Amino acid sequence: MSVMSETLVQPGNTQADFIKKEMNxxxxxxxxxxxxxxxxxxxxxxIDILGSGQLIKTVLKPGKKGTRPNKSDICTLKMxxxxxxxxxxxEYEELIIQLGDVEVxxxxxxxxxxxxxxxxxxxxxxxxxxxxxxxxxxNIPSNATIIYNVELKSVGTEAEVEMLGIEDRKKIGNKxxxxxxxxxxxDEPILAIQCYRRALDFLYPENGGTSYSGxxxxxxxxxxxxQALLEDRMKVYNNLAAAQIxxxxxxxxxxxxxxxxxxxxQNVKALFRKGKILHLxxxxxxxxxxxxxxxxxxxxxxxIQQELAILREKNAKDARHEKNxxxxxxxxxxxNDSATSGKIRANVKSQIFGKLAWSVIGGTAAAVAGLxxxxxxx
Length: 378
Description:
- By secondary structure, the chain is α+β, with helices and mostly antiparallel strands.
- The relative contact order is 0.06.
- The strands form 2 sheets. Strands 1-2-5-6-3-4 form a 6-stranded antiparallel sheet, covered by helices on one side. It has a two-stranded antiparallel ribbon with strand order 7-8.
- Strand 1 and strand 2 form a beta hairpin.
- Helix 7 runs parallel beside helix 9, helix 9 (268-280) runs antiparallel to helix 10 (284-297) and helix 10 runs antiparallel to helix 11.
- The N and C termini lie far apart (149 Å).
- The chain has helices at residues 3-6, 15-22, 32-38, 106-112, 166-185, 189-202, 223-246, 250-263, 268-280, 284-297, 302-377, and strands at residues 46-48, 55-61, 74-83, 88-98, 120-125, 146-156, 210-212, 218-220.
């Protein structure tokens, strides 16, 4: 018997027990998401996925057991979404997504991971895990709960990047970049960062610019192809930096813009964001120098000029503060010198007065003694 067969779930043990004991995963079997993940879902069964009533899945038609998708799998869906009043707001005959890359709203991303191939389910998504306060133009209002009818038609594994040609990598990478832009515009920088990082996975030239087609035939990318890939990569790094600034991850944002500037030293957006990052880190002199470089490249940019104006004032304020510190330091020294001089002058005066006093006393004593001697002799 093989080692693998020996570690199969034994009678009387749950799948959660097996995962915890045999695979060393700390599983809480009472967690709603864990419960939903570890059990099969029967027809007409309703599952409160998060345990909060904000993400409810009801099985209308069970699928083939054991065929749930994993993160990064390519899922093909037939889907429609409606508001609570029945108004249809989304409809797709064949929607292809990569699971876990937030290419749909968060609620769907979580719920689809719990569906089997061929399964049909209704998924009720609270606004928090759908389109939130902003809604979505033209027909999804603010704070709307959406009820989706979803069929998971098929599941496929993600293609290896090394097996993709330049054009396919560009297409996938830019799709993920655009999704990141969508999340960024909705003030969801963390989700935007997730999309941008995934985009970068596809926008690097593998094997020194050599890619492989599905038939494993070697193809050498042209200089023009590699340049186009570089430019797309720079866009992603620039956008990634903007999202990282929003989350106050300034060191990470600085690395992102430096990645841009290594390939494009005169990239105005990267220089502007580097100046802004240095400003936020309190490095005003470096920020001013960087922004002046950006200003020379794009003197008409109002954003750059505004940032420079703020930094000029801050640099002037810093200079005034330093000057005041120096003056206080020098003023203290002068006071100490004056006090010392005063003590010396007081000591000199005391010594002179003492000598004069003793001279007067001595002279007086001598005169009295002379007078007495004179009288005595007389």
